[in-house]
Amino acid sequence: MKKSTIWFLTIIMALTLAGLLYVQIMYMKNMIKMRDDQFSEGVKRSLYAVSSTLEQDETQYYLEEDAAQIQTSVLPRYGGIQYSFTTPEGVSGDLTLKGDPSVIAPQISSSKAFHNYQSVHDVLRDQYLYQKGLIDEVILKMLSQSSNRPIEERADSLRLTTYLRQQFDNNGLDLPFEFAVINRMGAVIYKSAGYNPVVAARNAFVQALFPNDPKSRINYISVYFPTKRDYILSSVKFIIPSFLFTFILLLVFLYTIIVAFRQKKLTEMKNDFINNMTHEFKTPISTISLAAQMLNDQSVLKSPKMLEHISTVINDETKRLRFQVEKVLQMSMFERQKATLKLTDLDANSVIANIVHTFKIKVEKYGGHIQSDLDAPDAIINVDEMHFTNVIFNLLDNAVKYRREDVPLELTVATRDISDERLEITVADNGIGIRKEDLKKIFDKFYRVSTGNRHDVKGFGLGLAYVYKMVHELKGDIRVESELNVGTKFIIILPLIKS
Q1: Which helix (H) or strand (E) holds 267?
Q2: Which of 111, 315, 324, 416 is the most buried (most CB within 10 A)?
Q3: pLDDT tens, 426-448?
Q4: pLDDT at 274 exceeding the cut of 70
């Protein structure tokens, strides 16, 4: 897949996820706003109902204080019927008809002797109609005068709490609340135990208790709900799983994109690897093929020196080809979780000395010098001899490959004990060095450090990856120190075997 295609798919998926996330956020935002508006409307209805109930209580209080001036009462069974009345002109009087009420009442309706009673009845009716016409004015007057009473008497804390709880329950607001009664200046007259003025200043609902009071004496009730936020959010908690799924989808998408780019890079590295491998194999195969053709020449067969030379060339190129095949086979190790090792106890000083002796010819071929400082008094390690040899050989081979042309190659291999339990092996050179940005990647599979104008350096990008894997398989550690155009030092730490 082309990199441009990966980027195109990435942008499309990113826009799709962003759009989905935006829709979810806007939906939740609108839901919260709607629930908040519903909550506010329910509170306002409840507070208005409480205020109306208190006004009704106030009216009832004054009506009970000023008993009706027109009273009709039945006296004890044989006391008769008593009427009390007041004329429009202010004349008051009482009329009593003694006797059994059940007997008197029918007679009143049929007897002409009680014509005067009928007149009284008319007077009472006129009085009733007169006072009925003035009822609204009387009630408003009572409500106006009631503001002189202390608010604690007109709306006491217990009654107000009861009314608030009833009205909130009626509107489906079954959650705790705090309230206070305040005057027009904002001063608290009385409050509930948990009322906090600072919180109320931000979240309180306010309603006038007696709206018909004079403005200078009007009082208000301030109510807020400590758990309002949790109550509203709980109504949209079903959206949380969708956010969770979207977040998981986003993580999977990011991981997929990262893997796609890694695979793209790995594919490019593998292509370079195949190209390098083809070139590396082609040279020794061509040389061996040429030598084989020379052996068919009769004149060559008659020259012992020429036969010896051809034999040496075939042997050297065969070794070179075998070494390249070994590097390719190393690649299979990276496909397995665990390498198959044949561990034995070896003297690191002795093994490294043999490697240096063998490699010395190659170093001197390029006019260089290799020095070994094998000073570790205790150098017994438990390793796989073949892989350990390959590790040291790879480091030395890299030093030769990445040498500087302007100075002779100087190689140093050293060992020392850094504790009773660990052995340090260093391979240092004075080559071209490694840039800081490459130091973190040199142990990656197929990664090859840029060599600038040097085009004669061939390889698969497997050597240092193999070294890193094997050192860790042997329970060790490896790090690198390098400075551009100064040199590089590889430091290997391996556990020692106690005597």
Answers
A1: helix 240-295
A2: 324
A3: 999 999 988 888 888 888 766 66
A4: yes
Unique residue bearing structure tokens 């506010």: 40
3-state secondary structure (DSSP) of residue 23 = helix
pLDDT at 87 over 60: no
Instruction: Supply the mean pLDDT for the chain.
Output: 78
Average pLDDT of the residues in 410-426: 91
Spatial distance between the Cα atoms of 434 and 486, rounded to a whole number of angstroms: 9
Say whether 102 sits in a helix, a strand or coil. Answer: helix
Rounded to the nearest 5°, which phi and psi values hold at 381? -130, 155
Q: Which amino acid is it at 19? A: G
- Measured CA to CA, the distance from residue 494 to residue 382 in angstroms comes to 9
DSSP state, residue 428: E
Q: What pLDDT was estimated at residue 301?
A: 76
Helix (H, G, I), strand (E, B) or coil at 337: coil
Dist CA 147 CA 156 (whole Å): 14
Tokens (6 digits) for 356:
């240096």
Structural tokens at position 18: 């962003």
What is the pTM (predicted TM-score) of this model?
Answer: 0.46
- In single-letter form, the type of residue at position 154 comes to R
CA dihedral 296→300→303→304, nearest 10 degrees, is -50
Residues near 399 by beta carbon (within 8 Å), at least 6 away in sequence: 409, 411, 427, 429, 431, 488
What are the backbone dihedrals phi and psi of residue 465, each rounded to the nearest 5 degrees, phi first? -65, -40
pLDDT band at 77 (very low <50, low <70, confident <90, very high): very low
Q: Which tokens belong to 237?
A: 């908690």
Q: Which residue has the higher pLDDT, 471 or 268?
A: 471
Query: CB neighbours of 211 closer than 8 A, spacing ≥ 6?
Result: 51, 218
Q: CA 236, CA 25: separation in Å to the nearest integer?
A: 11
Distance CA 324, CA 397 (A): 13
DSSP letters, 438-495, are HHTTTTSTT-----TT-------S-HHHHHHHHHHHTT-EEEEEEETTTEEEEEEEEE
Highest-scoring range by mean pLDDT, 25-29, 422-426, 440-444: 422-426
Q: Is 415 helix (H, G, I), strand (E, B) or coil?
A: strand
Report pLDDT for 76: 46
Among candidate residues 321, 320, 480, the one with its CA nearest the CA of residue 399: 480
